Amino acid sequence: MPIHPTAIVDRSCDIAPDALIGPYCVLGPQTRLGAGCVLDSHVVIHGHTTVGERCRFYSHCSVGADPQDLKYRGEETFLRIGDDNVFREFVSLHRGTRGGHGVTVIGSGNFAMAYSHVAHDCVVGDGVIMANAATLAGHVTVGDHATVGAFSAVHQFCRVGPHAFIGGFSVVTRDALPYVKTVGERNHARIYGINALGLERKGFSAETILELKHAYRICFRSRMNTGEALAKLREQEWSAPEVALLVTFIESSERGFIR
């Protein structure tokens, strides 16, 4: 087990034999590291954190720290991270709270750029990109393959839908729709159509993108209110299941959604 002699590793840690732990890293109690994980220098895993396989932590990441919640009183909570994630310099990831569901969950195949932050009780899916200094407040849910742009902030309890694209410097105070581009600052974020280029790059068919564009026009470019637009969408037959997901996301929104 290649552990640098300057690293400090709690005896209760469970570390895969091929994990690499660099200079001046600190691993707190009940930390688990899967096979193929790499920690560069000065990475701190505070404890009660489970990390899957082949995750890479660049220097000065802070992983599994206490939640930044004034109600937190030291109770045992957790952080769970999947496989094949990359966390660049100075990323911070916090454990859950008892007032939430006790655990922060990060899926697999995610890329968190420098200084990005995932707060307590967040649930982040797979294939998510968080650009430099992107910030998730507590209890945020991010769907698979979403992108959160540089210096953007997502308000607590908001949802970011699957394949959503949030542009840089955006302030997201309501749910961000799946498959849609959302951009704006100072609480004035708005939507700018289906993220057609991004979906095409991810392998979505031309037919699916066309149906999403058609559904978008019905919802947001017609003179119908939201209820009327959703009723019209339900009346039609769609070959793309993504349209149904968009409709379900809108119907299940509790904070309202950006439009």
Q: Please give the radius of gyration in angstroms.
A: 20 Å
Give the overall shape: elongated
Strand count, sense and barrel status of the largest sheet are: 10 strands, mixed
Could you tell me the CATH topology label of the largest domain: UDP N-Acetylglucosamine Acyltransferase, domain 1
Whole-Å distance between the termini? 52 Å
Please report the first level of CATH classification, the CATH class of the largest domain.
Answer: Mainly Beta
Number of helices: 4
- Low-confidence blocks of residues: none
CATH-level-2 architecture of the largest domain: 3 Solenoid
Q: Total domains, how many?
A: 2
Fourth-level CATH superfamily of the largest domain: Hexapeptide repeat proteins
Strand content: 25-35%
Task: Give the neighbour order of strands across the main sheet.
Answer: 3-6-9-12-15-18-21-24-26-27
* Annotation, overall tally of beta strands: 27
Helix content: 10-25%
Topology of this protein?
Layout (H helix, E strand, L loop, with lengths): L7 E2 L4 E2 L4 E2 L4 E2 L3 E3 L4 E2 L4 E2 L3 E3 L4 E2 L4 E4 L12 E4 L4 E2 L4 E3 L8 E4 L4 E2 L4 E2 L4 E2 L4 E2 L4 E2 L4 E2 L4 E2 L4 E2 L4 E2 L4 E2 L4 E2 L7 E4 L6 E5 L1 H6 L4 H15 L5 H10 L5 H11 L8
Parallel strand pairs: 1-4, 2-5, 3-6, 4-7, 5-8, 6-9, 7-10, 8-11, 9-12, 10-13, 11-14, 12-15, 13-16, 14-17, 15-18, 16-19, 17-20, 18-21, 19-22, 20-23, 21-24, 22-25, 24-26
Antiparallel strand pairs: 26-27
Helix pairs in contact: 2-3
